[in-house]
Amino acid sequence: MRTAVEHATGLDDATRRAGELAVRTVVVDVEPLVAYWNGTQAALDEGIARVLGEIATLPTVEVVCFSTNSIRRPSVVPSAPGVRVVYLASAGKPVHTSAYQRFPRPGVVIGDQVATDGILARRLGYAFIQFDPPPGVPPGPRLMAAAGRLVQPLLFTKAAG
To answer: In angstroms, how far is CA 30 from the centroid of its own chain?
Structure first.
């Protein structure tokens, strides 16, 4: 069964849509929404605090999970009142799903790659909000985006608009 993919232009748009879906869990791809691929430690820490600050305001959200296939980690995982915050480095998206299984449903994955984030959302039974990455995407993510464009029609339908 194919599910809908939603598109967002950035964090504000993705957060608004997650709020409309009344999700209890939000899984956020770290690169590039939180921090750019080769960004500094300070940029990662600031990005996590910024994104968490916005998503944690949604009244139904109980879990915010930052997920990345890279090895980088924040200096400290911040907290938000009433929200469990999880950071998964070397997450193995979309193959490894066990770390997400106990998160409350419904959920959404917000990310830029169909081939990782979109397939993870589908495997978890979550909604998928895809945002367009900024210019200057490194070669690896650019190749993943091309692969995602090939499989997207097989996995997802366009959201009713």
So the answer is: 7
What is the domain range of residue 37?
A: 3-158
Count Cβ neighbours within 10 Å for each residue of 60-91 and write b for 16 or more, e otherwise: ebebbbbbbbeebbbeeebeeeebebebbeeb
Print the SS3 string covering 52-116: HHHHCCCCCCCEEEEECCCCCCCCCCCCECCEEEEEECCCCCCCCCHHHCCCCCCEEEEECCHHH
pLDDT along the chain (161 residues), means of 10: 74 95 97 88 97 97 97 96 97 96 96 90 93 70 63 63 51
CATH of the domain at 151: 3.40.50
Whole-structure pTM value: 0.86
Greatest Cα pair distance, the chain, in angstroms, is 41
- C-alpha–C-alpha distance, residues 44 and 8, integer Å: 21
Pick the closest to residue 121 from 28, 54, 24 (CA basis). 28
Domain count, the chain: 1
> What are the angstrom distances between the C-alpha of 41 and each of 44, 74, 123?
5, 7, 31
